[in-house]
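User: Please go through the entry that follows and flag anything odd:
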Amino acid sequence: MLPQRMCVACRLRGDRGQLIRIVKPKDAPALIDNKGNASGRGAYICKSATCVEKAQKRRALNRALRCEIADSLYQQIHIIIDGGEQNGC
């Protein structure tokens, strides 16, 4: 059984591999954790443009990671979604 994680935007649970992990390392800005093993506070979001927009509007990643999330990070997430398969919501 694969580990289940929850999207910060839609609150749906999914396999860890189906979600994008965002991590906030200590003393560094938040970043996308492609391998899923970076140390720091982590949050997950669906590979869905709807979820990314909802998270940005509601500041869900900001709350989950307890830091400011740069607009450039949301742009990077959109690039990953556009280049990959649409999952989630």
Q: What stands out?
A: The CA atoms of residues 15 and 28 lie 27 Å apart. The helical segments are 49-58, 60-65, 71-83. The chain is about 35% helix and 20% strand.
